[in-house]
Amino acid sequence: MRALVYAGTGRMDLVDVEEPGLRRPDDVKVRIAMTGICGTDHKILAGKLDVAGSGTVLGHEGVGTVVEVGDAVTHLRVGDRVIVNPTQSCGTCRNCRLGAYCYCFNFDDHQVGFTLAGTFAEYYVGTAQYLYPIPEGMSWQVASLIEPLGCSLNGVLKSGLQPHESVLVIGSGAIGLLCQSVTRRLGRLTVATEPNAFRREFAAGVAHHALHPDELTAEAIAELTDGRKFDVVIDAVGNQLAAAMEAVAKGGRVVPMGYDDTYHVEIAPTRLIDDGLSIVAAVPLHDAIGPAINLAARLPELARMVTTEVDMADFRDAFEATMGVDLETGQKVEVKSVKAVIRS
């Protein structure tokens, strides 16, 4: 079968690999319809996130149709449309026994598209417990957004956002926009930043205000927040924690949502203590899919978010449209997409 395989920093190849089969009675085989490109996929290719083994099939935001089930599977049937939950765990270590699955001591060995074969492929085989039926009437495109929506929803909820509070979301890629969708409904004010004009225009239809980062001056922050700064600041880029710390109000919370292993920042503990600030990094949730499915019907903007859709053979076009980097030359190109999916 065709699959997109990680071939080292900056490289991903379309190759033929062996089609997977059922291994255990609780396994399910899925014919993948499409998989969303995540920011972590970008960071892996850019060499900013060292989580994938060479030769691994990438992709973890997959959706598809069940084509085979093991003898022990009871909640799924052939023909069911499903969402793959890529956040898996060993289930037997101390943390798993305590219910802290996302902090499994063997977590790195159980991640779809990083260390386990992912969904940038024609078929995926995985344990039934990590597959969720897609509600009737939900499109493939919206279904492909459920996993990142769940991550965004959980990050916002972990921030403790209250209805009277203001939020700044730094970055308006897919995760940033999904955070904006949630915070606009849960908080008083949502402000987005984004340097790319295409994405900034999209964010203007989701957040209350969408600004270029250069426009977010101290004076602008004071005007937007009545001089208070923001109660919650979400870094949806992965390298904006310093900017987030400048924009957060006393008693506020900063939520790092993006990934970038190459980014480091100094923080004075006395600032955290004196201003009563919290950095809320414990945002992963083992079951982010279930809550997101229930919320999706209230977010009509999801239907517009997939702006690029290509076949696996054209994967470079989709990555370049969302990364802003030519995969062959490494040169910057214009970002011209909000969310891209790759059809299998």
Considering the chains and any ligands shown, give keywords for the structure.
about 350 residues, 6-stranded parallel sheet, globular, single chain, about 25% helix, 2 domains, Rossmann fold, alpha/beta
Description:
The chain folds into two domains: 187 residues, Quinone Oxidoreductase, Chain A, domain 1; 131 residues, Rossmann fold (3-Layer(aba) Sandwich), CATH 3.40.50. Helices cover 27% and strands 24% of the residues. The protein has twelve helices and 15 strands. Strands 3, 4, 5, 6, 7, 14 and 15 form a seven-stranded mixed β-sheet that branches. A six-stranded parallel β-sheet has the order 10-9-8-11-12-13. Strands 1-2 form a two-stranded antiparallel sheet. α12 links the parallel β14 and β15. α4 crosses α5 and α4 crosses α10. It starts with a strand and ends with a strand. The model has no long low-confidence stretch (mean pLDDT 93).
CATH superfamily of the largest domain: Medium-chain alcohol dehydrogenases, catalytic domain
- Could you tell me how far the N terminus lies from the C terminus, measured between alpha carbons in angstroms? 10 Å
Query: How many domain modules?
Result: 2
Strand content: 15-25%
**Coarse structural class:** alpha/beta
